[in-house]
Amino acid sequence: MVEAGGLVGPQRNDSTTMTVRHVSNKVRYVSKTIKKTRHKRRRDHHHHVVPRVPKVLQELFVGCREIFKGPGTVPLPSDVNKLCSILDEMKPEDVGLSRDLQFFKATSAVKGTPRVTYTTIYQCDEFSLCIFFLPATAVIPLHNHPGMTVFSKLLLGNMHIKSYDWVDPVNSKDSMPPSQLRLARLKADSIFMAPCDTSVLYPTTGGNIHQFTAITPCAVLDIIGPPYSKDDGRDCSYYRDHPFSAFSNGESAVVSEEEGDQFGWLEEIEVPENSEMDRIEYLGPQPQIIEPCC
Ligand SMILES: [Fe+2]
């Protein structure tokens, strides 16, 4: 069997090589090779060689453990800045990726709707660290993050990010009946090109709704605190956006015609087909839980 794209091992300067399979615009970590080097390896309790944890990934993990205190808590601005400054320094290699991977070089036309793949680096009740892999033209459709703070750091590729907040955040956690339109303010609508700064969605600004559209194959690291939980009322809703000018709903007193392009109408929709994702195992460097002694 011939597999398009084949196997590519990105080059790292330390002791690990991550191998990612690229088949029909999907990315898949399939194996991990540990090169024997004299200095840059260590062994766990079971004498397995484990990858060295990049400093920035460990700092990010420790920062998340300190800052995310569970449902109902929102990080302080100083804490948001702290996480952003760590994320701004992050490189693809810190999570075992490289721009040399075939997945990120793919230029062939995509057949049908390309599927998004994701991998979870770490998840607990307070936060989750995930990477999403989007082939070119793939979309993570417009969705919300009720009561959650979201940090998104584009590691590789070019991506269009669109985000909205509700104009009237009252009852923003309530589900809307289908076909009902609700006014939202456009917060971001631009193309991000890695390496670039982190974008943040805040739970207190009314909605924190976003959409990712890959222009080239992309990898984006998402930190979400707290994670989605249906049981705790943090389920994901999906939306379709309409231009402000498309509907008149007596809002013109609030929004002038000139400001119209800064707003949109959001319609809650059923879970779209292109929201389905494939999950792969994370085989990159694993941040370490270091409990304080005594
Ligand atoms: Fe999201």
Describe the protein's architecture and organization.
The chain is mostly beta strands and 294 residues long. It has one domain (51-279): Jelly Rolls (Sandwich), CATH 2.60.120.10. It is built from three helices and 17 strands. It has helices at residues 55-67, 77-88, 102-105, and strands at 7-8, 16-23, 26-34, 42-43, 49-50, 116-123, 128-134, 139-144, 149-156, 158-166, 181-193, 199-201, 209-214, 218-225, 238-243, 263-269, 277-279. A six-stranded mixed β-sheet has the order 12-9-14-7-6-17, covered by helices on one side. Helix 1 packs antiparallel against helix 2. It is globular, with a radius of gyration of 20 Å. Residues 1-25 and 30-42 have low confidence and may be disordered. The structure holds fe (ii) ion (FE2). The site of fe (ii) ion has 4 residues, from loops. Belongs to the cysteine dioxygenase family.
Features:
single chain; 294 residues; mainly beta; Jelly Rolls; 6-stranded antiparallel sheet; globular; disordered N terminus; binds fe (ii) ion; EC 1.13.11.20; cysteine dioxygenase activity; RmlC_Cupin_sf
